[in-house]
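We modelled the chain as a single entity of 286 amino acids. Its sequence is:
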Amino acid sequence: MRTVYVNGEYLPETEAKISIFDRGFLMADGVYEVTSVLGGKLIDFEGHAVRLQRSLDELDMQAACSKEELLEIHRELVRINEIDEGLVYLQVTRGSDGDRDFAFPDPATTKPTIVLFTQNKPGLADNPAAKQGAKIISIEDIRWGRRDIKTVQLLYPSMGKMMAKAAGCDDAWMIEDGYVTEGTSNNAYFIKDGKIVTRPLSNNILHGITRKAVLRLAAESQMEIEERLFTIDEAKEADEAFTTSASAFVMPVVEIDGIALGDGTPGPVARRLREIYLDESLKTAI
């Protein structure tokens, strides 16, 4: 049985409770982060903490604790639950003032809710899926406009995952106004003639922590990068493609809408980026 963290207490998961009036439950009025654990250490914690604060600020939501306290909670949960490879999920909501209302409760009298739990994922770094590569479909992007805020509004991405599953694929890339935005839970890239192409940062996509690290490592490795809008047809004609996320790191893409990329196996650039990202992450984990 896992130990989880709820509003200042470490509890068995079966004893964890929050109010039915919590705005995260009623209004999806909350934000979250997921931090990977490799070798019992946290990957890119600083980046996740900074993005969490940005999400809170954008929604005029109070922080539930300091960054230092947050780090200690993460480490304690990893220790208690004996996580060698896995994930730490963090969620902060606007809390509950004891009833349901569209108007925000007074932050002076209503504390935010904070919940953390771990997921044990042996073999996370050596995921067999990365050796096979992912098959994706394209779907319309009908999410709200502020995708740069990492909110718990994940219904449509979940539906997108299920659309992909129904099509016998692994994931979906979303398209808005003719251009790819991102995957359901990841940032999207393709590679043509050695150049890495990905959409630039804006309110339309999540500012991925793994995205930032991978692009930095690619630049340091003298790889050419172009941040611009791109169509799904461009991606289908690519030599290879991949996604990045905190839980899957660098995931090669081998098929888009039934069209194989290259020889239909993970390409050399995606494989190399995954290798150097994992190597660097292990060196800097805390």
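As a brief sanity check on the tokenised model: The mean pLDDT is 97. The first helix runs from residue 23 to 27.
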